[in-house]
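testing teh design pipeline on a random one, pls ignore if ur not involved
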């Protein structure tokens, strides 16, 4: 029987052709939750190729007659992985290919918040620019400032590489709020160039605090009112990881009251909705979850997601499984 793929993420070429060459492809972008559950339970598909907008929860997975779910993303907080494992459903993701693109966006948000790029752009477009003025839109330095990293995985390291090139001092906590020591061997190229500190010290020392942790029960609201209050009033928060890591209502209050200087966000707690008041704050740079959004990166993600899906549909172990324990040969 032909391999059967249900595709809700609009993956680009050449991933789509890989799937078409391997079997039958049913494209169902924007399927509402109830409809998606019914499709997954129908027995008409071997694998669901999903996007971050799909909620693959325990109820869907209990009813699903699927071999696997191939997520078109490196993050998989939209999927209840424990429930997938319980039901013998493999989950795949797309690591590695979006590291640099996402670190570019983190660096862009560091520079953009420091130099007030959104305010400056709005100023010019609205016809207010009347010539050079010593007081006009004066911002903060980046060079010589301290970048604090929450997490020290692939994207954090790529951000550190960029920050070092900009003359920043880089400090990090590898798995906040827990304390874990990273050995010099694990630090690799960064040994002697970056400094690991207890999480509370990273927060207190950072001129820019950039989030690079996965979203899970331990990291939900890692950045809350207490952490924001412990930051320097001149500091900026940058989040390119997952929205719920930040208590967005607390962030809005902190930005309004001068508890911190500004924030650059690519992700939101209740995406695509923004916390009330966030969009009105001038000291923010707000992007629509575009960390991986370059043409080549999205193509590579599509290929990985397609390859994972094809392997799962064939009953093989995919290249990138987040729950290899669910594999039954
Ligand atoms: C991911 O892959 O998890 C990003 O958030 C979107 O590409």
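output:
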């Amino acid at each position: 029987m032909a391999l059967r793929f249900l595709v809700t993420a609009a993956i680009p070429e050449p991933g789509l052709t890989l799937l078409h060459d391997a079997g039958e492809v049913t494209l169902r972008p924007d399927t509402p939750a109830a409809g998606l559950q019914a499709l997954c339970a129908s027995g008409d598909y071997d694998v669901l190729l999903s996007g971050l907008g799909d909620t693959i929860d325990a109820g869907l997975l209990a009813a699903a007659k699927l071999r696997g779910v191939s997520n078109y993303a490196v993050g998989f907080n939209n999927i209840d992985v424990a429930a997938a494992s319980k039901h013998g459903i493999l989950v795949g993701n797309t690591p590695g290919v979006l590291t640099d693109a996402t670190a570019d966006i983190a660096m862009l948000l560091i520079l953009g918040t420091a130099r007030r790029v959104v305010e400056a752009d709005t100023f010019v477009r609205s016809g207010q620019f009347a010539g050079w003025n010593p007081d006009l839109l004066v911002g903060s330095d980046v060079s010589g400032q301290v970048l604090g990293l929450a997490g020290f995985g692939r994207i954090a390291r790529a951000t550190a590489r960029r920050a070092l090139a900009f003359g920043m001092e880089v400090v990090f906590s590898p798995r906040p709020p827990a304390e874990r020591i990273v050995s010099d061997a694990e630090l690799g190229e960064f040994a002697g160039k970056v400094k690991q500190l207890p999480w509370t010290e990273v927060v207190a020392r950072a001129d820019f605090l950039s989030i690079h942790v996965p979203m899970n029960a331990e990291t939900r609201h890692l950045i809350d009112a207490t952490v924001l209050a412990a930051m320097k009033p001149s500091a900026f928060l940058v989040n390119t990881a997952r929205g719920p890591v930040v208590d967005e209502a607390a962030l809005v209050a902190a930005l309004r009251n001068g508890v911190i200087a500004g924030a650059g966000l690519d992700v939101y707690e209740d995406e695509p909705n923004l916390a009330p008041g966030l969009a009105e704050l001038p000291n923010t740079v707000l992007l629509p979850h575009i960390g991986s959004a370059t043409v080549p990166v999205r193509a590579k993600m599509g290929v990985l997601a397609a390859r994972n899906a094809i392997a799962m549909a064939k009953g093989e172990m995919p290249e990138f499984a987040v729950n290899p324990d669910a594999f039954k040969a």
